[in-house]
Design brief:
Shape: elongated
Number of strands: 0
Number of domains: 1
Number of helices: 2
Helix content: over 70%
Radius of gyration: 31 Å
Largest sheet: none
Distance between the termini: 77 Å
Structural class: mainly alpha
């Protein structure tokens, strides 16, 4: 009977270890993946709203230039050019910020040792 009780205790410990390993894997994989998914979802929604707002802003600038300036006839293409350059500038700034990566931390310079 001592053998059987020992074997049962060993199985119980094995089950505890397996449960511990499974819980650890869930904690270290599923949790971060959920956080990453939430980060991506909010980032995507924010990007869509920002893009929609910028489109509306560019269209309003175009309408303002068309309505409030005297650029008519042969010069009616100039407001479109201005808005196109403005849009290209916004795209360039966004691309530059994406490529430059996260901002580097600015730490105080260490004092020179004497």
């Amino acid at each position: 009977m001592a053998k059987h009780g020992g074997l049962k205790g060993l199985r119980s410990q094995g089950n505890d270890v397996a449960k511990l390993v499974i819980d650890y894997l869930k904690q270290e994989t599923v949790g971060p993946l959920k956080d990453l998914g939430r980060f991506v979802a909010y980032g995507t929604i924010g990007s869509l709203f920002l893009a929609g707002g910028l489109v509306l802003l560019l269209v309003s600038v175009l309408r303002l230039l068309q309505g409030e300036t005297v650029l008519t006839g042969n010069l009616s293409w100039i407001p479109y050019l201005i808005v196109g350059v403005l849009a290209a500038g916004i795209i360039a700034i966004a691309s530059w910020r994406i490529v430059s990566g996260p901002a580097k931390r600015r730490l105080p310079k260490p004092e020179a040792k004497r």
